[in-house]
Design brief:
Dna Ligase, domain 1, nine-stranded antiparallel sheet, elongated, alpha+beta, single chain, 9 helices, ten-stranded antiparallel sheet
């Protein structure tokens, strides 16, 4: 083979290799036109198209028709400053509505933009759910109106088919913007029975009276005016006390639902909105099982009527409840509407002695087999408190330790139906409280081999373990001996 032929072959081979490399380079380089096309296809056709252009604050009426029926939303007050436009539902003006949810019907129209245009000049709209759509008509202050239709939920997540009356274009829009148009008018009724006031305007409940078919007494709770004093040290510092069927201080934590649970009380569901007499009877409210009356400081009254507690299919316990003047029968859990099942021990402190030790001005202790002991006290704190026992100086700390046993007297249950025994008490303690500005007397009587009756100011108040009283007698004997007081009795 000649040298020139070899050169030609070599050159050809080089070109083949070079061509293959060029092809390979072309295959792996990004295609600018393809990248541009991909970028354009990431946006759906028609995305971002503003469908409704009018100002939602100018909507004065909305007509809604859906599978639940027809209803009209009407404006009560236009938006002003930070206050949103206020709407109500015709025929529901007497009810507390969820105004924020209702407001979305108008406000969301501002954000109704297309996520895509599905079809233009569409003639088979029924396949998108428009054969029987949700229909809404927006009426504006200008006299204009906009009618639109809401179809089926799109296979594309969180999208719904949407059409404007007079336009054959089918859009998809965000479901969250139009879902509330599928609701019935009852879905806009607030499940809050009575709104909770803000802290600055929180009312004082002067009296709560509970009447129940399963109790042969009324429960009466009254506001303790002493609680207005920020330095209040008596009782349990709860703002209320129970006055019937017997007097008792309340537990601060456990009484709050009983005294203030009406404010912000919320239902799980409705039994009936605008109930008739048959609804009221069927709910067990024609002759209510429980009636609770709340009287505020300004004499405003609220009255709740409640059915007997019942257990639903899920095993949860409820009452049917109506607030007088509120035309709704609510379904409320027994945990929220506590008045129908609460027992006295559930919300009372059952404290026998209500005095702070540093508020005691005088204390007289009497018991079988012992001479009376009279403690005279002065001062109002640990730093300046001084005690005399039968006119002789007595150690302050030893007095405090004795009173600490007294203040732990266990009011284990209420002595309802008991009468004061004819015999003398086993022990008696009379306390003059300079802060409470009163003197009260606590007496202990034997009842059975294991139980004693606690009588306060002549009223049978509690039942306690007899072992507590036996130990009290032992501690009274130790006041003078200097022996350490016994702190336990069981």
């Amino acid at each position: 083979m000649t040298k020139s032929v070899k050169s030609i072959i070599a050159l050809g081979s080089a070109l083949v290799v070079l061509g293959a490399g060029a092809v390979c380079w072309k295959m792996f380089m990004p295609d600018e036109s393809s990248e541009s096309s991909s970028s354009e296809s990431s946006h759906a056709y028609g995305e971002g198209t503003q469908i409704i252009h009018n100002n939602p604050d100018e909507i004065n009426k909305i007509e809604v028709s859906n599978s639940s029926g027809d209803f009209n939303v009407v404006r009560l007050k236009k938006a002003e400053g930070e206050d949103k436009t206020l709407y109500t539902i015709q025929g529901y003006e007497d009810l507390l509505l969820d105004t924020s949810k209702l407001w979305t019907l108008s406000n969301n129209t501002m954000d109704v933009k297309a996520n895509s245009i599905v079809a233009e000049n569409c003639t088979d709209t029924e396949k998108y759910g428009f054969s029987n759509p949700v229909t809404a008509v927006l009426h504006y202050d200008s006299g204009d109106s906009v009618k639109f239709y809401i179809g089926d939920i799109s296979p594309v997540a969180e999208n719904t088919y949407f059409m404007i009356d007079g336009d054959d274009t089918v859009y998809t829009v965000s479901s969250s913007l139009v879902d509330n148009y599928r609701l019935s008018e009852n879905d806009f009724v607030s499940k809050t029975v009575l709104e909770e006031p803000d802290e600055e305007n929180y009312p004082i409940v002067s009296n709560i009276t509970i009447k129940r078919d399963d109790l042969d007494y009324d429960i009466v709770i009254e506001y303790d005016e002493k609680s207005d004093d920020n330095n209040n040290r008596g009782g349990t510092s709860a703002a209320h006390v129970m006055t019937e069927p017997v007097f008792s201080y309340l537990s601060v934590e456990r009484s709050i639902k009983v005294t203030n649970g009406l404010f912000g009380l919320t239902a799980d569901d409705f039994y009936a909105v605008h109930p008739d007499e048959s609804d009221i009877a069927e709910a067990g409210l024609a002759s209510p099982f429980c009636t609770v009356t709340f009287t505020l400081e300004d004499k405003t009254q609220y009255k709740l009527i409640m059915s007997e507690p019942f257990t639903d299919d899920d095993g949860l316990k409820y009452h049917y409840v109506m607030l007088e003047g509120n035309n709704i029968i609510y379904k409320i859990s027994t945990e929220s509407a506590v008045w129908g099942t609460v027992q006295l021990v559930d919300f009372t402190s059952q404290a026998v002695f209500g005095s702070n030790v540093w508020d005691i001005e005088k204390m007289t202790v009497s018991a079988e087999g012992y001479d009376d002991i009279v403690f005279d006290c002065e001062g109002d704190s640990k730093d300046n408190f001084k005690v005399k026992k039968n006119n002789s100086d007595f150690e302050t700390e030893r007095f405090r330790l004795f009173y600490s046993y007294l203040i732990n007297a266990p009011g284990e249950e209420f002595a309802l139906g008991y009468t004061v025994p004819d015999e003398k008490p086993v022990a008696s303690v009379s306390v003059t409280d300079r802060y409470l500005e009163k003197t009260y007397t606590v007496e202990f009587y034997n009842n059975t081999a294991l139980k004693s009756i606690i009588v306060i100011d002549g009223e049978c108040r509690y039942i306690c373990s007899k072992s507590y009283v036996d130990t009290l007698l032992e501690n009274i004997g130790r006041i003078d001996t200097g022996e350490e007081y016994i702190k336990t009795w069981k």
